Amino acid sequence: MSYSGVKLPEFDTLVARHTAAATQMQELAARLHxxxxxxxxxxxxxxxxxxxxAQVGQEAEDLRKRQSIVREMERHKIAFGASTxxxxxxxxxxxxxxxxxxxDGTLAAKAAKAAAAGxxxxxxxxxxxxxxxxxxxxxxxxxxxxxxxxxTQVSAAIAAQLRADxxxxxxxxxxxxxxxxxxxxxxxxxxxxxxKDPAYMGDGFLDELVNHGRTxxxxxxxxxxxxxxxALIWRAGEGKPPFSxxxxxxxxxxAIVFEKGKFQDRWAASKDAIGSALGSRQVPMADLxxxxxxxxxxxxxxxxxxxxxxxxxxxxxxxxxxxxDDLFHAASSNAKSAQALLNRTPAxxxxxxxxxxxxxxxxxxxxxxxxxxxxxxxxxxxTGKDSVSLSLTTEALNTxxxxxxxxxxxxxxxRLTIADRKLYDELxxxxxxxxxxxxxxxDQVYGTYITKSEGFDGLSKAELDRLLVLVSSDRDxxxxxxxxxAARVVDRVNDHYPTSGDKGIKEQLIPEAKVFGHLVxxxxxxxxxxxxxxxxxxKDVKDTLNSAFALFTSPIGGxxxxxxxxxxxxxxxxxxxxxxxxxxAYIVNRMIQTSVTSGEALRTAADQNEMVxxxxxxxVISARIATGEWSEEAMRDAxxxxxxxxxxxxxxxxxxxxxxxxxxxxxFMEWARRHSAIESTSxxxxxxxxxARDKTHDNLNITGY
Length: 705
Prior knowledge:
single chain; 4% strand; mainly alpha
């Protein structure tokens, strides 16, 4: 950013003269043009003067805008210049946008300081600048004016003002102003702590945030740590922009270390004999809004905590949020940021942050019931295709397998039962994100069961079975996992069918059938362990598979996204131009969608094993159709059908024509099925699924099914 120094009052004189010159040049150009045109002469000289006048006019307008900014700076006693023997100079950025951003940032900071000092009208003034927060010049100026200490104290003051309003029954009126102001703080802090943003305040500012986060302060006579106030800013962030990896590496990690250092002794006491007998709970460090009882007004999504007339005790009967909950909310908007927070072993620790969250601190997430932020951050950190995502997923599974082993045990009838209901419930918020992680790394699920390599390091088949039962207790997690395996099946068929054909494709599908067997049985056992009866369980397991197929073919599913771009070409009669794998995927997508929507898959399959077999048959038949290679016997059998031409011998009509009529398409699919060798391997695939079910039972030491 470059600056120009302007001297007052000479600058005002310059603006006035520049404006007058522009006007005079415009008048001269007009008169000269009229005289030249009237005399029948070339008007080019007048046009040149007119263009020059326009240029001077633009410069005059620029100067007037700068003059307006300078006058505002004078009016608000904002000094970006210096007084010298030659007069007063004010420094203005060469960019008008940057100049305006500096002015607005300074005024917003003044309003923030006034709000911190107790000025009730200042909060409304601060709210007015919320839309400016995305501007880097504004953000940097705002942060420079307030500093890390000011940011900490302003957020505390806003919470205190809300508490005072709540005591008088007026919190609802000021809640919106408070929320807008907090969003402004969150946006500017996210920009100012991101090294890739022009607003970056430098490493020293991050260190200051840490220093003030660890400092004990007071508001309205109530003691709090700076992190408890800063957490309100993290919670107010909407991820646009997200908090950076750098922020999480410096401030985020330190906040976690700080809470553990302050609270680990009381946590240990809650688990000793006396604490356990008294039903003690793991109390986290609450954010300041929760301490003051104003969380429901400060953060709209926070559960109601009732009227705030006195500082609240950290009672498990009250809603609110912990500092670490707010931190994970900030981290959850960006995968790299979430990974930066979790993928670290702090100095002096014997475990990573991720392992710590899943073990020593697990109970603290349930104190306020605000478990969604960590769950979403965990999902973001583990569902990518990068090496860090896989590493974190592997670590999470190896950590959770110890919990899962405690949760499930065979009962007296050798049926799976939940031996530790409390722990099972405590883990409930992790089922969905871990299910998403497993689905994202379905290749490693396959590797663990089938290849004994390229699986999850340190995880046995039996341990994975137990984890899948835990995760599949959440229906959405089970659906996502099964949809991911369905995608593997279709991809495998399309990869191998062109070279393997009907005869070789069976060898490719058998291991996939084994994996599917483990997945569907995990859902079944999860329901039975929760005391569902056999009939309810059978219906749900089929419904879950049906939902998985629907997700798979939906616009956001693996197959749905793959074929979306091919639809226009096929409908337009360009099917022959579509590559084999795309055409095959399109056909199987159409087949599955039609069957799922009509309920055919549910009606015709006796159980989940037949539904898996049906999926695999659909994939193979679609691949067979996409090759376009049919025997003479098959073509003779098709003679006279609506899906072939009248040629001798007949030829298949274009695929888009066949698909256009549902009856023709159904007849075509029945013909294709008759002339595909997949029918001969159907029973073997279904039996493979059943065998995998039995293997799951062996792995879990249960024989009562």
